[in-house]
UniProtKB/TrEMBL annotation:
The species this protein was found in: Halobacteriovorax marinus (strain ATCC BAA-682 / DSM 15412 / SJ) (Bacteriovorax marinus)
Major location category of this protein: membrane
Superkingdom to which the source organism belongs: Bacteria
GO cellular component: plasma membrane
Transmembrane domains' residue ranges: 66-90, 110-127, 147-167, 174-190, 210-230, 266-286, 306-326, 366-384, 396-416
Pfam families (alphabetical): SecY (PF00344)
Self-association state and partner proteins as the record states: Component of the Sec protein translocase complex. Heterotrimer consisting of SecY, SecE and SecG subunits. The heterotrimers can form oligomers, although 1 heterotrimer is thought to be able to translocate proteins. Interacts with the ribosome. Interacts with SecDF, and other proteins may be involved. Interacts with SecA.
Taxonomic classification: Bacteria, Pseudomonadati, Bdellovibrionota, Bacteriovoracia, Bacteriovoracales
PANTHER family: SECY/SEC61-ALPHA FAMILY MEMBER (PTHR10906)
Name of protein: Protein translocase subunit SecY
Keywords: Cell inner membrane, Cell membrane, Membrane, Protein transport, Translocation, Transmembrane, Transmembrane helix, Transport
Length: 436
């Protein structure tokens, strides 16, 4: 069997394994938490419209509105991972652990422990919140509320999130892409056919005009094109490496250091969405008879996706998170030190501190355009098409960025075979006329 054929078979196995584990994830998302009236909870969200819960439901792949065992999704792990990443920027001891292989394993262990703790807190809050939900027929969503139900819910939701984390790690190890990203991608993508059917049903019933339907389709297609273009856009910084001769070959010379326009990626919108959803979710814990309840309800309605206050706060949080998260993704100090150790320099810039300042200047410029892009792509489609849609800007951004990375991984996997075959064909390793 040729090497190329072997690579193709290995790629097929990776694709099959990825789809298999994603299918397991979708089947587990259909299992409700013990003690939940599935018909009553479906009726409640169908009548209430969801509001801010639509945002939470999007990242859980519809598991939240079913109160599934995976209702918390993978977001608690992402939140704790980001917290430890931020702590590494301000606490030198944690930063030293992150740079060491053994220390990084400790950080991963602490992250998992913190994830379980966060899941327990969120699971308890969800149990209390769902105990107060009732459908239109005054049928309670939780027929038998109480301490036993809350403890069972906490254990079930913690187990569901850790099971998702295990699935994500297996996909990362044996699949095509980062498993956490693919799980979020699958949760959003699986809801898109239902969204299309809903739009077509509204159009057939006369509740949605043909112009509105065409505008929605045009915005979606334009969003896919723009996000794809920006995600693959980068600024190439020229780098000059010292030339050296090894085995009659010249290495080094002029190369480039790529810096992505969207350095922060999809994390700034996800973090901003989580921060906006947190106050509205916590406000639901306040009882109906509390004197602050009317004011909190007004705040919750103002924080629904598509409202003016939501858009303003969402834009500000995206800008802040982009400037905060981009330096974590692209560490200019480490890049400058790496260039200096490899006898490389940016033409016209002195190595060391001056190179770091130059890279910081470029990164700040790129981050400005990246933040502007994220604000436009996350808010403008919602304003044009309306808030009651799953084709929001954040969803489009996640879908396209994950697809682009998967395609780049597949291309790199296949190109690695070409490079290996071309290198071996010159007699480096085998053959009768091998060079060494």
């Amino acid at each position: 069997m040729s090497t190329a054929h072997g690579k193709l078979e290995e790629l097929k196995k990776k694709v099959f394994f990825t789809f298999l584990l994603l299918a397991v994830y979708r089947m587990a998302a259909q299992i409700p938490v013990p003690g939940v009236n599935a018909a009553a909870i479906a009726s409640y969200f169908a009548e209430s419209g969801g509001g801010i819960f639509d945002l939470i439901n999007t990242f859980s792949g519809g598991a939240f509105k079913r109160f599934s065992v995976l209702a918390l999704g993978i977001m608690p792990y992402i939140t704790t991972s980001i917290i430890f990443s931020l702590l590494g920027e301000v606490i030198p001891q944690i930063q030293e652990l992150q740079e060491d292989s053994e220390g990084n394993k400790k950080i991963q262990k602490w992250t998992r422990y913190a994830t379980v703790l966060l899941c327990a807190v969120q699971g308890w809050g969800m149990a209390v919140m769902f105990e107060g939900f009732k459908s239109a027929g005054n049928i309670p969503v939780i027929p038998e509320p109480g301490m036993l139900f809350r403890i069972t819910t906490v254990i079930t939701l913690c187990a569901g999130t850790m099971f998702l984390l295990w699935l994500g790690e297996r996909i990362t190890e044996y699949g095509l892409e980062n498993g956490i990203s693919l799980i979020i991608f699958a949760g959003i993508a699986v809801e898109l056919p239902a969204e299309m059917m809903q739009k077509l049903t509204l159009y057939r019933n006369g509740e949605l005009s043909g112009i509105s339907l065409l505008i929605t389709v045009a915005v979606i297609l334009a969003g896919f094109f723009i996000v794809t273009f920006i995600e693959r856009s980068q600024r190439s910084v020229p780098v000059q490496y010292a030339k050296k001769v090894v085995h009659n070959r010249v290495y080094g010379g002029a190369q480039s250091l790529p810096i992505r326009v969207d350095t922060g990626g999809v994390m700034p919108p996800i973090l901003a969405s989580s921060l906006l959803a947190a106050p509205a979710t916590m406000a639901n814990f306040v009882s109906q008879g509390h004197p602050l309840k009317p004011y909190l309800d007004t705040v919750i309605q103002s924080l629904y996706p598509g409202q003016l206050l939501f858009n303003i706060l969402f834009a500000l949080l995206i800008v802040y998170m982009t400037y905060f998260y981009a330096p974590i993704q692209f560490k200019t100090k480490k890049v400058a030190e790496m260039l200096q150790k490899n006898n490389a320099f940016v033409p016209g810039v002195r190595p060391g501190a001056k190179t770091k300042e130059y890279l910081d200047f470029i990164l700040n410029r790129m981050t400005f355009f990246g933040a502007l892009f994220l604000v436009v792509i996350c808010i403008l489609p919602t304003i044009i098409t309306g808030a009651n849609t799953r084709f929001g800007g954040t969803s489009l951004l996640i879908l396209v960025s994950v697809c682009v990375r998967v395609m780049m991984n597949v291309q790199a996997f296949m190109f690695s075979d070409r490079y290996e075959t071309a290198y071996k064909s010159r007699g480096k390793y085998n053959g009768q006329n091998r060079r060494f």
